[in-house]
């Protein structure tokens, strides 16, 4: 269970890092906070406010709201590295 | 004592009242503060909403029907000062050959700041498109207030907005400031929303234009004429397969005007003519040019809309077929002239002989006979030409009446009896017993058809050969072979015609050299002579073209079959009910 959450935090850290390059760190982290992600000053995800899967879903939806299909195109390759989570979400 | 107690009570009440008043004042103050905060928030929300509406209105007004992403970005940039504070706003546009980078400086910054913005934008585009843009040529321009190299401020806050048209990233818009943590979520979200709406509008417009373009492209691609369209810089924007084929460039992509110019070298200076046509605003049409794939006329025309030139269009008109028809007509004319000259020459020689020498009466008769024969040949040729002219002019009239085909066939066989004997050819008939006594057709023209077929059958026969004229009745749905068998006829036509309506079938078969398979299709064409047939024995082939027209005017069909070295059969049908087709 704990391992599972760790994977989500790692995945979200990667996505936020990528979005920070694309959107800029301010926009990327603001969207992450809105989704319930707790980050340190570098933008690494340290915890989530609620359920990890729901937070991850909200994070992806938040980026999709800003970037549309482009967000999916960027998140998909990262998601490939997490096959267990990939099977649970349909972008 | 009582006085003191009363005073104490009064003071206590007064304190309580004052405390209540103070508490209520504080409560009112708090309430007012909350209301003020709510109002400020609502005002802020309304400001965002107003901005969103006004910028979208402005976008639709200013952009209109423009497909330019640059226009969209510049309208957004123009509206930003009313809504958001920033030091620099920049955009990058991805073009096929370069990147355009523009920055508007609202506040003075250093070149270092601009370089940082540029680097962040390049990184963003690289991350989105998974491509390296560092080595791509970048066209840079700054506007707004001047750079100040004495300033040390770096980029403190920024956010990037990718501009996606259709499903392609067309560019990036970046708002940046020297202060840290300067941008709030709401204003960023509003800008993303505005950019998305603007991109969506351009995408929809582009889809409409693309749909129109694809129709236009499909039309141009399916044109038999070759078409090239160039822009004002003489770059090819449209080229169809026919143009590539004309120039022998079918397998080459990414073609330029120079590729076509090279193919036309020594025949037409294409580049020069395109430039001349655009400059003089004149249409240029070339002479016929021989290219590897055929003969072409090349037309070059300037293209412009209401206000400005758009480029040039080059059309390759394929003249190969016209050229071929012209050659066939020339050959035909030569052949006719030759066919007329030969009998004329004979007549002239006969008359000269008769005029210059004392010839015996018997010889004189022979000369007259030859003159008669030659003039008859000429008359037949002239009649045929007149018939063809009538057919082409649509003035060939049938005089249909109830006629007896058996009587006509027998009459024609009798007529050709002498000629057949002279040619040492035996002529016979095989007529089915169930042929109707009377069928409606034009007896005169059908006789003419039989004359053509029988005379050819005699002419192109071998010595001691045979000519057989056959006729049978075909019933719709029946097998012609079976019908022939039932009538006791040895039917030479191998093709079966079960699906044609009730008709008379007439066939004339000879035992001559026959006709090659690939020549049979040319037999009934008035301008094409079948060499194997006419080469040795002479003849124009016009008779068969006339035959075809006469039979088709009756609603029937003509055809031929042959086994090389064994002979040939020519047949025609006459529908018993009009309008029948094979």
Summarize the model shown.
The complex is a heterodimer of chains A (91) and B (582). Chain A is mostly helical and 91 residues long.
Report on the architecture of this protein:
The complex is a heterodimer of chains A (about 90) and B (about 575). Chain A contains five helices and two strands. The mean pLDDT of chain A is about 90. In chain A, strand 1 and strand 2 (about 45-50) form a beta hairpin. Chain A has about 90 residues and is mainly alpha-helical. A two-stranded antiparallel sheet of chain A has the order 1-2. Chain A starts with a helix and ends in a 5-residue tail after the last helix. Chain A has one domain (about 1-85). With about 575 residues, chain B is an alpha+beta fold. Chain B has four domains: about 1-60; about 70-210, Beta-Lactamase (2-Layer Sandwich), CATH 3.30.450; about 320-395, Helix Hairpins (Orthogonal Bundle), CATH 1.10.287.130; about 400-575, Heat Shock Protein 90. Chain B contains 15 helices and 17 strands. In chain B, the strands form four sheets. Chain B has a five-stranded mixed β-sheet, with helices on both faces. In chain B, a hairpin with a 5-residue loop joins strand 6 and strand 7 (about 235-240). In chain B, helix 9 (about 360-395) crosses helix 15 (about 540-555) and helix 10 runs parallel beside helix 11. The longest helix of chain B has about 60 residues, at about 1-65. Chain B starts with a helix and ends in a 7-residue tail after the last strand. Classes of the chains: A mainly alpha (about 90), B alpha+beta (about 575). The interface of A and B includes residues 18, 24 and 77 of A. Chain B: It holds the Pfam family HATPase_c. Chain B: Keywords: Kinase, Membrane, Phosphoprotein, Transferase, Transmembrane, Transmembrane helix, Two-component regulatory system. Chain B: It is an enzyme of class 2 (transferase). Chain B: It comes from Candidatus Staskawiczbacteria bacterium RIFCSPHIGHO2_01_FULL_36_16. Chain B: Its EC number is 2.7.13.3.
């Amino acid at each position: 269970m704990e391992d599972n959450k760790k994977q989500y935090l790692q995945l979200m850290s990667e996505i936020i890092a990528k979005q920070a390059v694309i959107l800029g760190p301010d926009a990327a982290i603001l969207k992450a906070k809105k989704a319930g992600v707790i980050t340190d000053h570098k933008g690494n995800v340290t915890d989530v406010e609620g359920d990890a899967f729901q937070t991850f879903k909200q994070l992806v939806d938040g980026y999709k709201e800003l970037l549309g299909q482009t967000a999916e195109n960027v998140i998909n390759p990262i998601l490939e590295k997490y096959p267990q989570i990939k099977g649970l979400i349909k972008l | 004592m009582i006085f003191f107690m009363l005073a104490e009570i009064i003071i206590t009440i007064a304190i309580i009242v004052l405390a209540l008043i103070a508490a209520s004042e504080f409560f009112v103050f708090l309430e007012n503060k909350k209301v003020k905060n709510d109002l400020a928030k609502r005002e802020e929300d309304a400001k965002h909403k107003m901005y969103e509406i006004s910028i979208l209105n402005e976008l639709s007004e200013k952009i209109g029907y423009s497909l330019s992403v640059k226009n969209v970005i510049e309208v957004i940039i123009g509206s930003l000062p009313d809504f958001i504070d920033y030091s620099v706003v920049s955009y990058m546009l991805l073009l096929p050959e370069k990147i355009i980078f523009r920055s508007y400086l609202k506040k003075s910054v250093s070149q270092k700041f601009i370089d940082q913005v540029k680097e962040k934008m390049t990184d963003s585009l690289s991350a989105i498109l998974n491509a390296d843009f560092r080595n791509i040529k970048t066209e840079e321009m700054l506007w707004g207030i001047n750079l100040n190299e004495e300033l040390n401020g770096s980029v403190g806050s920024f956010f990037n907005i990718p501009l996606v048209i259709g499903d392609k990233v067309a560019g990036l818009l970046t708002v940046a400031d020297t202060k840290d943590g300067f941008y709030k979520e709401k204003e960023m979200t509003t800008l993303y929303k505005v950019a998305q709406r603007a991109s969506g509008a351009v995408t929809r417009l582009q889809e409409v234009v693309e749909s129109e373009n694809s129709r236009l492209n499909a039309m141009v691609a399916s044109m038999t004429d070759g078409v090239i369209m160039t822009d004002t810089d003489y770059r090819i924007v449209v080229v169809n397969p026919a143009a590539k084929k004309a120039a022998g460039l079918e397998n080459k992509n990414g073609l330029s005007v120079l590729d076509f110019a090279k193919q036309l070298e020594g025949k037409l200076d294409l580049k020069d003519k395109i430039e001349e046509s655009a400059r003089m605003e004149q249409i240029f049409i070339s002479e016929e040019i021989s290219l590897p794939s055929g003969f072409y006329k090349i037309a070059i025309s300037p293209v412009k809309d209401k206000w400005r030139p758009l480029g040039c269009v080059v059309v390759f008109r394929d003249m190969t077929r016209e050229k071929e028809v012209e050659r066939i007509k020339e050959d035909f004319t030569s052949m006719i002239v030759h066919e007329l000259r030969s009998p004329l020459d004979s007549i002239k020689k006969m008359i000269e002989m008769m005029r210059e020498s004392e010839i015996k009466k018997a010889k004189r008769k022979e000369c007259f006979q030859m003159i008669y024969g030659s003039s008859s040949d000429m008359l037949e040729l002239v009649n045929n030409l007149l018939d063809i002219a009538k057919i082409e002019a649509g003035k060939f009239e049938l005089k249909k009446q109830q006629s007896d085909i058996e009587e006509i066939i027998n009459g024609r066989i009798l007529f050709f009896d002498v000629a057949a004997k002279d040619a040492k050819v035996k002529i016979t008939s095989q007529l089915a017993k169930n042929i109707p006594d009377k069928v409606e057709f034009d007896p005169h023209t059908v006789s003419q058809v039989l004359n053509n077929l029988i005379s050819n059958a005699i002419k192109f026969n071998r010595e001691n050969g045979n000519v057989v004229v056959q006729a049978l009745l075909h019933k719709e749905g029946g097998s012609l072979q079976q019908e022939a068998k039932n009538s006791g006829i040895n039917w030479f036509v191998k093709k079966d015609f079960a699906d044609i309506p009730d008709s008379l079938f007439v066939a004339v078969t000879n035992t001559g050299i026959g006709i090659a398979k690939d020549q049979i299709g040319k037999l009934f064409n008035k301008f094409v002579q079948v060499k194997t047939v006419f080469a040795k024995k002479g003849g124009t082939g016009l008779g068969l073209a006339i035959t075809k027209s006469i039979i088709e005017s009756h609603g029937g069909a003509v055809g031929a079959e042959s086994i090389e070295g064994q002979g040939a059969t020519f047949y025609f049908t006459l529908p018993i009910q009009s309008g029948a087709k094979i």
